[in-house]
Design goal:
259 residues, alpha/beta, 2-enoyl-CoA Hydratase, Chain A, domain 1, Lyase 2-enoyl-coa Hydratase, Chain  A, domain 2, 10 strands, globular, binds ligand LHQ
């Protein structure tokens, strides 16, 4: 627990909550440092098999804390992005566990980027996404320029990034930015049910699947086919694969041990 960030571990599921509701969970240096550390330590904890990222109060995350940027000792933007934001995005992508963004309210600027970097996104009816960068004379960062065209296609990405319209939850579902929209009071229950489903899967297979899906975004079909063969070799040698086969044979649910 750090000021501005809450991490709760309940069985195989870690819930990471951005927790500065008075500032719509805007990201300060201490929160960014704590978030990076939390993600790295979750990655190293093999008892955790799924992660939920959400926000306290009525927002998911309003992006960079703009008041902090007014401080005389604020790092140059380029340094802030390279040293504070980028490592968080890399941590979300490289951690073995699947990460669900439970988008409870507005996700603006780098807050939207955080949600984009997660493996799955479900949203409350009150959620909305704002590519707020342009409104303050900045460009997309924290991976938004990379994720957005891949999530919604280049035409819609250009519209969202350049026109800067707010995308409400229904539109986010329609364009494929989120995979489910639920009433706000059911969001965490839904996120937990999804996390439990993921946590019941084979951890190594989940981690390798995450890797394969990410690599597939930047390689051609031949490389993808070869990559799948290699990863299948690794998964195929795991105890979890043997357990999956045994469970099928014995007509029972598998109990994956994570090795
Ligand atoms: C905030 C913020 C906030 C501080 C609401 N900061 N206090 C940029 C620079 C550096 C490095 C790298 O990356 C980036 C990337 C970015 O993230 S750029 C984008 C930064 N974010 C924004 O431009 C969004 C700014 N916020 C808003 O436009 C609105 O607050 C939204 C549309 C999100 C919500 O509007 P409302 O529902 O009307 O709420 P509000 O504006 O009244 O905000 C409530 C409080 O939260 C308020 O404080 P107060 O003391 O007056 O109650 C806001 O000042 C505070 N807050 N966002 N980013």
């Amino acid at each position: 627990m750090t000021d501005g960030l809450r991490v709760e571990i309940d069985g195989p599921v870690a819930t990471v909550t951005l927790d500065r509701p008075e500032a719509l969970n805007a990201l300060t240096v201490p929160v960014k440092v704590a978030l990076r550390k939390a993600l790295e330590s979750i990655d190293a904890d093999h008892s955790i098999r799924a992660v939920i990222l959400t926000g306290a109060g009525r927002a998911f995350c309003a992006g960079q804390d703009l008041a902090e940027r007014e401080q005389p000792d604020a790092a140059p933007l380029e340094v802030e992005v390279r040293e504070r934001y980028n490592p968080i995005i890399r941590a979300l992508r490289s951690m073995g566990q699947p990460v669900i963004a439970a988008v409870n309210g507005v996700a603006a600027g780098a807050g939207a980027s955080l949600a984009f970097a997660c493996d799955l996104r479900i949203a409350a009816e009150e959620a909305r996404f704002m590519l707020a960068f342009g409104r303050i004379g900045l460009v997309l960062d924290s991976g938004a320029s990379w994720f957005l065209p891949r999530l919604v296609g280049s035409a819609k990405a250009a519209e969202l990034a350049l026109v800067g319209d707010t995308v409400d939850a229904a539109e986010a579902l329609r364009i494929g930015l989120v995979s489910k929209v639920v009433p706000g009071d059911q969001l965490m229950e839904e996120a937990r049910a999804l996390a439990d489903t993921l946590a019941g899967g084979a951890p190594l297979a989940n981690a390798l699947t995450k890797q394969a899906l990410q690599r597939a975004m930047t390689i051609d079909l031949d490389e993808a086919l070869e990559g799948e063969a290699k990863l299948q070799g690794i998964a195929g040698r795991s105890a979890d694969h043997a357990e999956g086969l045994a469970a099928f044979r014995e007509k029972r649910r598998p109990r994956f041990g994570g090795n």
